[in-house]
Every structure is written in structure tokens, then in C-alpha cells.
Amino acid sequence: MSSHSHVEGQLPHEPERATLEGRNKITGFWLFLGGETVLFGTLFAAYLTLRGQVMDGPTPNELFDFALVALATALLLTSSLTSVFALQAMHKHNVKGLMGWLIVTLLLGAAFLGLEIYEFNHYVHLGHTFAASAFSTSFYTLVGFHGAHVAFGLLWVILILLQLKKRGLNTTTAPKVYVFGMYWHFIDVVWVFIFTVVYLMGKVG
Amino acid sequence: MAAANEQTSHRSDVKTTKPEGSKKHIIAFVFSILLTFIAFALVMAGEINTDFIYIMLVVLAIIQVFVQMAFWMHMKDKGHTFAIIAILSGVVVVFTCVIMALFWTTW
Amino acid sequence: MAHAHAHAVKRRTGIMDWLTTVDHKKIGIMYLLAGGFFFLIGGLEAILIRLQLMFPQSEVVSAQFYNELITMHGTTMIFLAAMPILFGFMNAIIPLQIGARDVAYPFVNALGFWTFFFGGVLLNISFIAGSVPDAGWTMYAPLSGTTYTEHFGTDYYVIGLQISGIGTLIGGINFLVTIINMRAPGMTFMRMPMFTWATFITSALILFAFPALTVGLAALMFDRLFSGNFFDPSAGGNVVLWEHIFWIFGHPEVYILILPAFGIISEVVSTFSRKRLFGYSSMVFATILIGFLGFMVWAHHMFTTGLGPIANALFSVATMLIAVPTGIKIFNWLFTMWGGSIKFTVANLFAVGFIPTFVMGGVTGVMLSVAPADYQYHDTYFVVAHFHYVIVGGLVLGIFAGLHYWWPKMFGRVLSEKLGYWTFWTFYIGFHLTFFVQHFLGLLGMPRRIWQYLDGMGFNTLNFISTIGALLMGVGTILFIINILITMRKPKTAENDPWKDGRTLEWTISSPAPEYNFAQTPLVRGYDAWWLEKMEGNSKMTPVEPIGPIHMPSPSILPFFMGLGLFIAGFGFMYAREFGVVSLVIGIAGLVITFGCMGLRSWIDDHGFHIEEEEILKDQGVKA
């Protein structure tokens, strides 16, 4: 009910926690991320089990390219920071700043996704297809699950931007922004393990 | 729901009213970049013991994730008990799975 | 209290009411109905299995159909019958027990139901489509791969379970948040009723176990649909990986099933002994410990896979450890009854019957945990007897206890006790007849999952007895259905506290509960909140707020369509192997429906409606 009594400008400092619905959303999303941890953990376990099975296809060392991974990492890491800025703007009730930083986040995420599509396409031409070996299947599944999460996040942030544009910042839209921020950081955190376990360890041998 | 709402809503308002600065977030960012750079450098340098690199890479990743979760996801702030429980429980399950996977492929 | 967004109360009636409801009590009833329906299907499959095994070398069903029956019986009973019925109880009871007006996410709750339902329907449509899952409920690779199962059976399993798994997962998150954030003032964690605690831990197990299943099913799906190589040894895949992933999910799943039953038994035993639950805090601790250990023992299903002596020894010891918290629970129930003035209502009969039965299942469990001995028991009827003792003797008896206990709260009518006694005795005797002898069949060397056995092996008599028992269980179930049908024709006359000895908050409000549950949120002053007030001579709970308008969530058809979208998508992708692009387009269209509805849900700004003061007062006047 308190969600309806706050008029624009009278928002509390943390509008995302002003209503029970908002707090429920945040608690629930944390739990969801706990579940997602297991999801990616299982994918990592499968990848670690199968990564040596390259059959006739290229090995990780032949396949992966430092520059590409470094660029992708930089993009995603920066987008995580810009989503923090978006949240800070929200806490200052600066809708323009909020939307601006979300758009930057969106662009960086889109660039990351584009890079990944380019990368996959490149690999397929090198004979590293999904069905080539157990290594390739588990690689595409793990990295692809992450990529799908990025893609879903992009659609999500577009929807949030449209809502911010139409309705402004209020106690209904604020939790959505906050939860998206958590999601985006989580994607970044998963990527930290992907570039470590998949790419760097793949390079080591 | 109205009563429950108003009753609990001030609980979170008590916490903070000062807007946080972006300095610490930028420091966290620089730190993350640095850790990433060290990881890349370790691998590119080559000629080092493979097991050592593996361990260092995992340690670096864990530190980086810790920094990001603490600062960017606010897990160090108050009122995140269940967030910590959720993530930690997930990590415990993952840990057992991954250890098992490694245990039985490398031994 | 001026509310800008309040609009006329829109109430739907008839079938639309059920399709659009977000009321946890109605969703609970729908879970119960759907779960009950699948229970009957699974039960029918069980009877057919037993009829086939009644005599040596009989041909009641073909070998292929027999494989389909054992696969679908296990899958249906676990995913589509037991879990939904438990979700039915959670929905119907948890918000009432913690003094909440609703669950945390009413919309998501409805979504959870519909995804479960469509997933279950998809799985069972395989019977009509003519390619039924037949690789056993564990779907071990490589048998479940395209090399050995060319038809669409495994695909139905993979996609049906994936969809219903999504429903279960979001249901679990919903209950976690509900219990964390929605408790009434004074209801601290250590004052929560045992069933609420069990639900809490169960939901946590769902949260951390189901993602592993999601990955396993996705991997198997990729192998089958896109020629992936996860489980294909000829391309470097690993079949043991499937076993690991499946049991990392599968073992917690066992506790997901049994913990709520423990909760129900705790409530029933305490109520009908008219005593506080003995050792409440040790019960809570034991529940948490069982939940934790549940993740550390999965490899005991794989002792004979060849993991080596170290792994086998570790998992063997970890498994034995579980006997400790479980033992704590058994003794606590016994001590709760000790010195109590016990009333043997039907609910309590089931609960008391549960205790020794479950102990037997537990003891054979400890026997199986001894890895060297397991080499003898593995894949024999001894294992079948063991897990039916814990699942039927534990879980199903718990469900029956819960059904008789909470029926008045859910439907406003008390089930016939007389018919209930008949249900109990036929079902209970039938159960032991069926499964007790199977221990010995196993020890004599009868393997599980076989279609026929030869005459003169010494299996004849015991198998015959087992089948008679199964038929008796069927009679018990039919008696229960008759009981429901008879009771449904009676008027809704159940009192708030029909057992007179209710201890928890659900017994302070009318039966069935009004739409908003509590006209005034109650103040909880201790464990067994309602019993406490009764002992102090109070006839009602102390309210923490005056009577005022109550905010309610709006009904919505979107969850139904989101489930339907996944259903369509599942079909499309499944048959892409055969029909190509057309099928893929249908699959994508299904996903568009689901994600489109998701977007719509986010876009439509719906603030719900209010039930006004006059209506609440009127309800109170009529029913008080």
C-alpha cells in the first residue's frame, strides 16, 4: 500500500525496498541466484570432466585467442560497473542518469554478445562444431548457457527501459532495476570463472 | 497486507540515508581489471609449472568474485543474511560436484 | 485509507475462476486434484506391473509395455503425484500456519502449478503418441541415447520433466520467500510449526537440487536433438557423468519427498497426543541436518559403478550418518506420544502406522549403505522393497494422514472417520503384503526391472502374495475416493477447529479459510500459538491491526498461457528430428507465447484490488 502513497520526488532513498513486494522480489532473486550457482556449477563440472576429449577436433590451446577473450572480458566487466552507476543514479532519484547508464550497459552487453557470436562462428569454421567431440559439446553448452543469459538480460533491460520511459521511477519499477542489476553482476561473476576455467586453463594445456 | 507493509517498511529505512559514493565501486573495478590482467599475464608468460598456474588462476578468480559480490552486489551490507546463505549453499553444492568430477577424472 | 488504484472487485466464476486464480488455497486444491489424478495413473501402472508378475512367465503385458510401465510408474509417482500433492499441502496450509494473507508471489505460484501440469500432461501424452519412455525412471545413458532408444520416448521424458521441473523450482523459491518475509508478528523462526520448517528445508533442497536436473536433462536433450556427445562414449562422452548428475539431483529429491511427510507426521502426532512436540529444537536441527547430508551421499546409488574403494567408503559413511538425525525424529515422535492422551483418529492412525513402517525402510537403508553388501543387494527386489517402504510407507502414509487431518480446513467438511478406518487398514495391510515379501524376493536373487521369471526358482508364492497386497492397496485407494465423494455431498459444517485440539494458526480461522485468510493479522506469542491462547482461556488470537480493507492480487490468465506455451514449444522441438523446420517453427512459437506473456506480465501495471471492510465484517458475522 505504501507503494501508492509515494508520489514522484518523495521516493525513499532505497525505493526498491520500500514495499513488501519489492523486498520479496529481492529476497527471491537472491535465492534464485543460489540455484543458478548450482546450474552453472553442474555445467562446469560436466565441462571439466569432458574437456580433454577433443577427438579429431582442435584442442583448446589451438582454438582460443587471448585478444578476443580479453576484449570480451573487458566489455562485460565494464558493463557490470555501469550497471552499478545506474543503481547509484536510481538512489539519487536521477531517472535520466539511470536510463543513460542502463543504455550504456545494454550496448556493452550487446557488444559482448556480438563478439561471442563471432567467436562461435569462427570456431565452427575451424571444425569445432557442436557435435565434433565431447569437449566441443560441453564447451558450447557451458559458454552458450552464459550467452543465453546475456541475451535474456538484454531483452530484460530493454523492457525495463521502456517502463522507465513510460512510468518513470517509482516503487514498482525500482525493484525491477535493482533485480536486473543483481542478475547482471551474477552474469559477470560467472564469466570470471568461464574465462579462468575455460579459456585461460585451456591455454595452459 | 497494508499493515504488514507499513510495519516492516521502516525497518529498512532506518539503515542508511546517506547516498553511497562511486569511489569504492571504481576501486573495485580497477581491482577486478588488475586481477584479470595478472591471470592473463600468468598464462601468457608460460614456462611456469602448470599446477601452480591452475591454482593461482582459481585463487585469482575467487578473489575477484568475492570483491565483486561484496561491493557491487552489496553482500557486505546489512540485511543480506539470506543472500549469503543462498549463495553459500549453492557454492557448497557446486564445490562437492566439481571436486567429485575432478576426483574421478584425474585419479 | 485512500487508495488511488482500487477498482471494482472483479471476481470470475466457474471454470475461468480456476484457470485464472492466484489464490494459494485454490491453487493448493488444484495441485491436490492434478497430483491425485496422476497418482491414480501411476497406481494403475503399478497394478499392471504386479499383475504381470503374479505368475511365472505370464504374458499379461508385452515386454516392451512392461518397460514403459516401470519407467512411467516411477516418473509419474515421484514427479507428478507425490511432489504436487505435497505442494498442494504447502499451498493450502503454509500461509495459514505462519499467519500470512498470501504467499510471496501469488502470480508465480499459479505459474508454478500450470508449468507442472502441462509438463505432466506432455509426459503422459506419450501413451497416446505411441512412443513411451522405456529406459527406466533413472534414464541411464547410453540406453536413453539415440543409439538404443530411437523412438521419442526419452524425448517425452526429458522435455516433460524439464517443463514440470521449472514449475517445481519456482514453487520452491516462492515458499522460501513466503516463509522468510511473510510471517506474522511474533512468529520467529523457532516458533514456526514443524510442517512450516519441513517446507522451508524442502524448498531449499528443491532450489539447490533441481538446477542439476535441469542441466542433466538439457545435456541429454542436446545429445538427442542436436547430436551432442555428453553421454556418447564413441565421441569422448562419459556415461557415468549422467549417473552423477542424475543422483546429485536424485538423492536430495528423496528428502524433498520425505521431509514434508515428517512435517505432517509431527503436526498430527502432536495434535492427537494433546502434547507439545517433544524436542522441537532437535527436530528443527535434525531436519536441517538431513537436508545438508542429503547433498553429500548421492554416490551411494552408484556403489557398483566402480568408483573405487575410497569414494565408496566415504559415501558409505556419509550415508550411515543420516540415520542419526532420522533416529532423533523417530524417538521424538515416540516421546511426544509417551504420556499423551492419544486419540486414534484416522489421521493419527496413519501417522502412528507411519512410524514403524518408516523405521523398517530406514533400517534396510542402512543395510544398503554398506558398500560391500550393496554389491549383493544392488538391482534386486531388496532395493525395490527398501525404497517403497520409505516412499509409500513413509511419504504416502504421511500424505494420507495430512489429507484426513487438513481436509476440513481445505474443504469445510470432515471426512468420514468410519470409511477412513477401512481405508487405513486395507491400505496398510495391503502395503505390507506387497512390499514386505519383496525383501525376501530380493535376497533370493530376483532382479528388479525384469518382465518375467521362470517357474521353480522359488519366486512364485512371494510374487503372488505381493500382487494380492497391491490389489488390496488399490481397494484402499478406491475406498478413499468413495469417502471423498460421499463427503462432498454433505454441507460445509466443519468448525474452525474441528479436532478441538488444534495447536497452530490454521485452526483459528473458518473452514475453509476466507479469501484473505486472516481478517486481522494475529499476534504470535509462542510456539503452538493457538494452543497457547486456548490454555490461557482465550477464544481468539490477539489481533495486531484493526479491521480494514485488505489488498488482494488480481487473477490472471497469463500463467496458464505461459505453461501452454512451454507445452507447445516442447512438442515442436521434440519432433524437429522428424518433421524438420515446421516443427521448429512451432517450437519457437511456443517460446514466443511464454516469453511474450512474461513480458506482458512485467508491462501491465496491476496493483490488484481491495476487499472492503463491510464484506469482511459480513463474513465474520455469518461464520463466527
Automatic annotation (TrEMBL), chain A:
InterPro entries cross-referenced by the UniProt entry: Cyt_c/ubiquinol_Oxase_su3 (IPR024791), Cyt_c_oxidase-like_su3 (IPR000298), Cyt_c_oxidase_su3-like_sf (IPR035973), Cyt_c_oxidase_su3_a-hlx (IPR013833)
Keywords: Cell membrane, Membrane, Transmembrane, Transmembrane helix
One Gene Ontology term of the molecular function aspect: cytochrome-c oxidase activity
PROSITE patterns, alphabetized: COX3
Signal peptide: none
Membrane topology per record: Multi-pass membrane protein
Residue ranges occupied by any Heme-copper oxidase subunit III family profile domain in the UniProt entry: 28-203
Subcellular location: Cell membrane
Transmembrane segments: 29-48, 68-87, 99-118, 138-162, 183-202
Main subcellular location of this protein, as a coarse class: membrane
Superkingdom, natural source: Bacteria
GO biological process annotation, one example: aerobic electron transport chain
Pfam families: COX3 (PF00510)
UniProt keyword S-adenosyl-L-methionine, yes or no: no
GO annotations of cellular component type: plasma membrane
Family, per entry: Belongs to the cytochrome c oxidase subunit 3 family.
PANTHER family: CYTOCHROME C OXIDASE SUBUNIT 3, CYTOCHROME C OXIDASE SUBUNIT III
Protein name: Cytochrome B oxidoreductase
Native source organism of the sequence: Paenibacillus montaniterrae
Source lineage: Bacteria, Bacillati, Bacillota, Bacilli, Bacillales
From TrEMBL, chain B:
Annotated transmembrane regions: 26-46, 52-71, 83-104
Annotated keywords: Cell membrane, Membrane, Transmembrane, Transmembrane helix
Gene Ontology cellular component annotations, sorted alphabetically: cytochrome o ubiquinol oxidase complex; plasma membrane
InterPro entries for this protein: Cyt_c_oxidase_su4_prok, Cytochrome_c_oxidase_bac_sub4
Molecular function GO terms recorded: cytochrome bo3 ubiquinol oxidase activity; proton transmembrane transporter activity
UniProt record similarity statement: Belongs to the cytochrome c oxidase bacterial subunit 4 family.
Name assigned to this protein: Cytochrome C oxidase subunit IV
Record localization: Cell membrane
Source lineage: Bacteria, Bacillati, Bacillota, Bacilli, Bacillales
Originating organism: Paenibacillus montaniterrae
Membrane topology category: Multi-pass membrane protein
One BP term from GO: aerobic electron transport chain
Entry keyword annotation includes Manganese: no
PANTHER family named in the record: CYTOCHROME BO(3) UBIQUINOL OXIDASE SUBUNIT 4 (PTHR36835)
A Pfam short name: COX4_pro
Automatic annotation (TrEMBL), chain C:
InterPro entries: Cyt_c_oxase-like_su1_dom, Cyt_c_oxase-like_su1_sf, Cyt_C_Oxase_1, Cyt_c_Oxase_su1_BS, Cyt_c_oxidase_su1_bac
Residues in Cytochrome oxidase subunit I profile domain copies: 12-525
Pathway(s) per entry: Energy metabolism; oxidative phosphorylation
A Pfam family this chain is assigned to: COX1
Main location: membrane
EC number(s) stated in the UniProt entry for this protein: 7.1.1.9
GO BP annotations, alphabetical order: aerobic respiration; electron transport coupled proton transport; respiratory electron transport chain
Keyword Cell membrane: yes
Reaction equation(s) it catalyzes: 4 Fe(II)-[cytochrome c] + O2 + 8 H(+)(in) = 4 Fe(III)-[cytochrome c] + 2 H2O + 4 H(+)(out)
Residue ranges crossing the lipid bilayer per the database entry: 29-49, 69-94, 106-129, 156-182, 194-222, 245-265, 277-298, 310-334, 346-367, 387-407, 419-441, 461-486, 557-575, 581-600
Membrane topology qualifier: Multi-pass membrane protein
GO cellular component: plasma membrane
Superkingdom of this protein's organism: Bacteria
PROSITE patterns tied to this protein: COX1, COX1_CUB
Keywords noted in UniProt: Cell membrane, Copper, Electron transport, Heme, Iron, Membrane, Metal-binding, Respiratory chain, Translocase, Transmembrane, Transmembrane helix, Transport
UniProt-recorded Gene Ontology molecular function terms: cytochrome-c oxidase activity; heme binding; metal ion binding
Compartmental location: Cell membrane
UniProt family annotation: Belongs to the heme-copper respiratory oxidase family.
Protein function: Cytochrome c oxidase is the component of the respiratory chain that catalyzes the reduction of oxygen to water. Subunits 1-3 form the functional core of the enzyme complex. CO I is the catalytic subunit of the enzyme. Electrons originating in cytochrome c are transferred via the copper A center of subunit 2 and heme A of subunit 1 to the bimetallic center formed by heme A3 and copper B.
Protein name: Cytochrome c oxidase subunit 1
Lineage: Bacteria, Bacillati, Bacillota, Bacilli, Bacillales
